[in-house]
Amino acid sequence: MRSSPQTSIQDPDQFSEKSTDPDQLEIIQREVIALFVNGVRVLGLPKSIGEIYGLLFISPDPLALDVIVIKLEISKGSVSQGLRFLRNLGAVKLVYVSGDRRDHFTAEAELKKLANGFIRGELNPNLESATLRLDELKAMAKNHNSPNSDFFQERIKRIGNWRRRGGMLLKIVNKFLGKTTRL
Amino acid sequence: MRSSPQTSIQDPDQFSEKSTDPDQLEIIQREVIALFVNGVRVLGLPKSIGEIYGLLFISPDPLALDVIVIKLEISKGSVSQGLRFLRNLGAVKLVYVSGDRRDHFTAEAELKKLANGFIRGELNPNLESATLRLDELKAMAKNHNSPNSDFFQERIKRIGNWRRRGGMLLKIVNKFLGKTTRL
DNA sequence: CGCCTTGTTCAAAAAAAATTGAACAAAATG
DNA sequence: CATTTTGTTCAATTTTTTTTGAACAAGGCG
Question: Does the pLDDT of residue B159 top 90, yes or no?
Answer without folding.
Answer: yes
